[in-house]
Amino acid sequence: MTALASTGTPTGPAGRPFAMTRMTLLLHRPALYTWVGVSVVGAALMLWLYGPLTDAAATAWREYFACGKSTCSYDQNAILTYKTVSQYATYAMNLVPFLVAAWAGASLIGRELENGTAQLVWAQSVSPARWLAAKLAVPAALVTAGTSVLVLLHRMVWFKGRGKIDSAKPWAEEFTFHANGTTTIAFALAGLAFGALAGIALRRSLAALVVAVLCTAGIRFAVSLALPHLWPSVTTVTSLTHNSPKDLGLMVDGGLLTSSGARIADPLCGTSHYAMCRAAYKKLDAVSYYSDSHPFSHFWPLQLTATALVLALAGLAVLVSFRLLKRRTGASTVTATYKEPAA
């Protein structure tokens, strides 16, 4: 065990410009190589989807719809392969923020504070604030770059299959919605920020990992609940001859309209073609369905509003991290005790 105390002005390699960036990259090389590998493999998978898989699936769907009632053949394997690969790719995109949060809490911050390597750096030549700034800035840049490329490629795949592949997910489906826009990038940065906060607060890698993932899941859940209400919806009125209110994509609310224009709950009876339902609607004085929903044109307003909220939470977590680190490390003198990691 070695105790070191800082004596003032930074002198050494870590005091030079960009030294902390290099130090962070060297210290977390396994994570860097893993992220580069994930980004490359993910990009290759998206390009495979965008090219051969989408073309083959679209052709198979055209053949299927051309069959009518007569016996004919179509490439079912192409349809199933596209469906499977695209679904797993979308799920993987949504998993990225949780992986970033787990790594940030456990390895980036928590383990270094737990083992004493962070205190060792502070004692030599780097202030805790500068150390944390480098720890956040370098991964944030890499996560933003890699995730942005994957989101862009996912959007290209989805748009190419839109209207051509009947099994493709609609734009408002939760996983597809996030994989196609900036919210995935925002969630990843929030995972990084809350992972850092958990690591500083708990100073234990395993505990920080769990808390960081839970915080990211909490933010994701809160955004899912708030999303339909982040932008003014469009009201659609439809006849009771339909089975239910017709939404434009992302449903906010729906029910029945009375002759006076009042909104009441839908008894979920179905179309007024059924005598029983027709009698029920007459008793309720219902004349039509209504629905408040979001059309596809609201995709970017919803995306950007949700992204701004998530980034605001991430910024708050970063601010609290710096304040907490400053409170715990005190002034300029730092005494570090380095513990050799367990084999």
Could you outline the blueprint of secondary structure elements for this entry?
Layout: E1 3-5, H1 19-27, H2 29-67, H3 76-115, H4 117-124, H5 128-161, H6 174-179, H7 183-202, H8 205-226, E2 234-238, E3 250-258, E4 263-264, H9 275-284, E5 286-294, H10 299-329, E6 335-337
Helix pairs in contact: 1-5, 2-3, 2-5, 3-5, 3-7, 3-8, 5-7, 7-8, 7-10
Describe the structure.
The chain is α+β, with helices and mostly antiparallel strands and 343 residues long. It has 2 domains: 3-230 and 298-337, no CATH class; 234-295, no CATH class. The protein has 10 helices and 6 strands. Strand 3 and strand 4 (263-264) form a beta hairpin. It is flat, with a radius of gyration of 27 Å. 36% of the residues are buried. The model is unreliable at 1-15 and 331-338 (pLDDT under 50). This is ABC transporter permease.
Structure characteristics:
disordered N terminus, alpha+beta, 343 residues, membrane, single chain, transmembrane helix, two-stranded antiparallel sheet, transmembrane, ABC transporter permease, 10 helices
Radius of gyration, Cα only, in angstroms?
Answer: 27 Å
Fraction of helical residues: 55-70%
Poorly predicted ranges (pLDDT <50, ≥5 residues)?
Answer: 1-15, 331-338
Helix-strand topology string: EHHHHHHHHEEEHEHE
Going by helix content, strand content and strand pairing, the class is alpha+beta
Strand proportion, as a percent range, falls in 5-15%
- Amino- and carboxy-terminal Cα gap: 16 Å
Number of helices: 10
